[in-house]
Amino acid sequence: MKAVVLVGGFGTRMRPLTLSTPKQMLPVVDRSMLEHVVGGLARHGVDEVVLSLGYREDVFRAAYPDALCAGVRLRYAVEPEPLDTAGAIRFAALAAGIDETFIVVNGDVFTDLDVGVLWRRHHQVGAEATIALTSVDDPSDYGVVATDEGGRVLGFVEKPPREEAPTNWINAGTYVLEPSVLDRVDDGRRVSIERETFPRMVADGSLWAVPSDAYWADAGTPATYLQVQLDLIDGLRGPPVAGVSAGAAVSDDAVVDHSIVMDGASVEAGATVRHSAVLPGATVSAGALVEASVIGPRATVGANARVTGMSMIGDDTVVEDGSVVTASKIPEVV
Length: 334
Ligand code: GDD
Ligand code: MG
What we know:
By secondary structure, this protein is of the alpha/beta class. It contains six helices and 29 strands.
């Protein structure tokens, strides 16, 4: 099975971290987001991945110079300009010469979903495209998908107002597509699969969906980026993963509770880190508090400073000694 993995977005909701690093190259506990995603596909039988690249494609190439990621061979398809999801899929599939049924995934989705189940159902019903569905409490940030009892899609609406969402079942960002879907996408302009292509396929009755209750999260916001990491150390997806890297320096007089402290990071005496992620090379200085927040690569939280309430500190940024940061992104982002 071949898969196109979409990783070309700007990751705007994850700024400031994504000003230097594309979202899917951010670390998630011990590996890049991309390695988690590709590893998951490999476990379910995908043996070739076409990376659909745009923003900061250089960072991906530098990280995987031999074009191997989680044991899977990578091909790189770099868009000359952002083509949006359907445009990107078309561009990547044509660049890789895909002419058979293939898989597409959003590169920020963490899931234990079995694409083999989706693949088999797709062929069973003779679908042109088949979408995996997951259910969430608030569907308004996602593509909302209504189906009939057999799984034929009756409606696809991207990010509707909450009160207008017809159901809590949403597009889980994993598709099986026939190559004919590519013919539905205009060349050379931005086309959204969620806003254009899928709604048109609904009208033709050729779009199907398969619900799943497997673990699923979109790691594309600060809160969910943190949550997918806490879920890994909490053992929600198999044996718990260690949160504190062997290459981190945590003082005996520091408290690290329910948190991730990555390679080369340090937590000094009297500091407390709770429900947070401290990225590689960052420093939480003596007496500081970090709670429910993300500290970026090589950033410094000064002595006795407080960073709380889902704050996000950018790469190499210094939070001055004694200062208080609550529910903020530093540096500020627009
Ligand atoms: N190559 C390329 N070019 N990739 C892109 C582009 C583009 O122009 N635009 C976005 N992407 C990539 C992003 O990098 C990401 O991996 C994926 O496409 C989806 O974009 P997001 O920005 O993460 O979308 P979303 O989370 O708001 O919504 C999507 O995912 C939800 C599930 O996680 C939609 O597909 C929703 O319908 C879905 O429910
Ligand atoms: Mg997303």
